[in-house]
Write a structure and sequence with these properties.
By secondary structure, the chain is of the alpha/beta class. Helices cover about 40% and strands about 10% of the residues. The strands form 2 sheets. It has a 5-stranded parallel β-sheet with strand order 1-2-3-7-6, sandwiched between helices. Strands 4-5 form a two-stranded antiparallel sheet. Strand 2, helix 5 and strand 3 form a beta-alpha-beta unit. The protein is globular and about 70 Å long.
């Protein structure tokens, strides 16, 4: 096959209205699964909208939205419960798909006593060991070599489980990206790299990140396939991800997927995108909106109704309201949790320090009864 220029090699299934493109292969996804996918994408958008409003009202310290990028989260669609995910901080949909609840999500944002990670990370930095979802890190790229390590470990154990890791295109400029892909290629680790190319690394455009024609084209130097997919086409995302996961399971090694999408809003609640990009850019990308396209496809298949969407929105909005109202009444994690989760058997000097701390006078926490 003659090498095509990266501009033409974007793998797509749906057009911008959600109609199946001529000659495209539609991945096998049941009607129930399609409904669940639609619900997950909608859930991310609703949660993002509500949480950013709370942040703007001063109720929440920090938040990061993923408006326009939701379809790329469903790269996790072909994974099993025993696989591992090492995410970045813009894949809310992957967590929800895996079973992380709105309650878990909101408790983590508030770092309260029901926060699954006991207030040890800033908002949006989730961790769920019961789902094999590894803690999100602020420094970009740390998760990529970790994913390769997890994958190499699974290969040594002789399972056919895989690891999947997400990162933005800016992260491909780090040393972690390079060492991880080198290791993965050489060891044929069962790992799938999902590079979410959303156009901007905070305020730095793609052309300042890389002189390569595409991010997927970097894969060849590490001895693995690189695939560019329309990251706003959820069916295309599922198809390329499924192929990569199957390849890894069969022992054929890693794949680098570049999901071409767009961050329609700021990098985080602390960022103003209007200072570094044209206002027309997000509007152009709104035409390619992943939810609009899936909605169009479901209409064609007779699986969509406005009542369905209203019911989903209402249910998730209610769940958010309930979780938020409860989260507000909860205090901080109990002080002695400071001493947990490091040693299986706490050493004597920690016991001594804990006893000393617990014996001190406490300022009253109004939420603690």
């Amino acid at each position: 096959m003659a090498a095509k220029k990266p501009k033409d090699d974007l793998y797509r299934v749906l057009d911008n209205e959600g109609k199946v493109l001529k000659g495209a292969k539609v991945p096998e996804v049941s009607d129930d699964e399609l409904h669940k996918i639609f619900e997950t994408l909608l859930m991310v958008r609703i949660v993002d909208d509500r949480m950013m409003r709370l942040q703007r009202q001063g109720q929440l310290g920090f938040y990061m939205k993923s408006l326009g990028e939701e379809a790329s989260h469903l790269s996790v669609f072909p994974l099993r419960k025993t696989d591992w995910v090492l995410p970045s901080y813009r894949e809310q949909g992957a967590w929800f798909w895996a079973g992380y609840t709105i309650k878990d999500f909101i408790n983590q944002l508030f770092g309260n006593e029901e926060d699954p990670i006991k207030g040890r990370q800033m908002p949006v930095h989730h961790s769920a060991n019961w789902l094999n979802y590894v803690s999100i890190s602020s420094p970009v790229g740390t998760q990529i070599p970790q994913a390769v390590g997890v994958a190499m470990g699974m290969k040594i154990k002789g399972t056919d489980d895989v690891a999947m890791t997400f990162f933005g295109e800016g992260t491909s400029s780090t040393g972690e990206f390079h060492v991880a892909l080198t290791f993965a290629g050489v060891s044929k680790a069962p790992v799938v790299f999902i590079c979410r190319n959303n156009g901007w690394a905070i305020s730095v455009p793609t052309d300042k990140q890389s002189a390569a024609e595409s991010f997927a084209s970097k894969a060849v130097g590490y001895g693995m396939p690189g695939i560019r997919v329309d990251g706003n086409d959820v069916l295309a995302v599922i198809q390329v991800s499924r192929d990569a996961v199957e390849r890894a399971r069969k022992g054929e090694g890693p794949t680098l997927i570049e999901a071409v999408t767009y961050r329609r809003e700021g990098h985080s609640s602390s960022d103003d995108p209007s200072v570094y990009r044209a206002d027309s850019e997000p509007e152009e990308w709104a035409q390619k909106d992943p939810i609009k396209r899936l909605r169009g496809y479901m209409k064609e298949r007779g699986l969509y109704s406005e009542e369905l969407e209203a019911e989903i929105s209402e249910r998730h909005n209610q769940a958010i309201t309930d979780a938020y109202e409860r989260a507000k009444t909860l205090g901080a994690p109990h002080i002695d949790t400071l001493f947990e989760d490091v040693f299986e058997e706490p050493p004597w000097h920690l016991e001594e320090q804990r006893n000393y701390l617990m014996a001190q006078e406490r300022t009253k926490n109004p939420h603690h009864h």
